[in-house]
């Protein structure tokens, strides 16, 4: 990762992949019991009112295409070989 200008700790794609593995149950032994809350439960965001929505400035959009299967280990991989 350093050769691409960022460190592993800052890699959003890696964090997303790890989150998916945790949610699918592939990395249970690496997660503490108190940290099993889903991403949705950790973030509470209020929806904007119609007035706020009308007054929002257009924001640039970043597009990314990924497939869930790109983040999952092969079906024949055992849990020891994942991480």
Automatic annotation (TrEMBL):
Q: What is this protein called?
A: Gag-pol polyprotein
Domain of life of the source: Eukaryota
- UniProt organism field: Trifolium medium
């Amino acid at each position: 990762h350093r050769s691409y200008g960022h460190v592993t700790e800052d890699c959003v794609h890696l964090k997303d992949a790890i989150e998916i593995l945790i949610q699918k149950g592939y990395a249970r032994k690496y997660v503490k019991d108190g940290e099993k809350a889903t991403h949705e439960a950790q973030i509470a965001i209020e929806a904007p009112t119609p007035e706020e929505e009308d007054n929002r400035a257009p924001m640039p959009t970043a597009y990314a295409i990924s497939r869930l299967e790109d983040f999952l280990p092969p079906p024949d991989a055992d849990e020891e070989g994942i991480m």
